[in-house]
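Practice problem: predict the structure.
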Amino acid sequence: MTFLELAKERYSVRKYKDKPVEQDKIDMILEASRVAPTACNKQPQKIYVVKSKEMKEKLAEVCRFTFGAPVIMVVCYDKNREWQNDLMQGYKSGQTDAAIACTHMMLEAWDLGLGSCWVEWFNPNEVAEALGIPEYEQVQALLPIGYAADDAKPASLHFKCRDNAEMVQEL
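Answer:
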């Protein structure tokens, strides 16, 4: 499968089988995050792998969109490591770097036969408190990961894309 085929095939999985994810697959997903490009290669991303029943329950108390996944990656960035653009007051790269790492993880998961769903509908401070994440790390996204349930399917708008003529302009 080409990269573009993989990118087009992948969809947000919101229903998972009750089947554990093998550690070697988790390691490969984490490796995809590790090699993701970041501003000035600062690598500010920090990934928390939530697998225990206790921690998944704590997380579910503050975010209803964990979808019963066997593994939930909590994607954060270290505010002390993020790159700052001195040419633009207040611009820092942590959020972008974490998003790039998260994208790599989603695509690697799909390539390994696993589903995932990018989740940002939560209060980052509540997630950090529930999981004991330090204040200098910013929670950016949750990434539930697992084997898609047999009846899992893409959301109704998944395959609806704007035409390039609307999004691209040559200068």
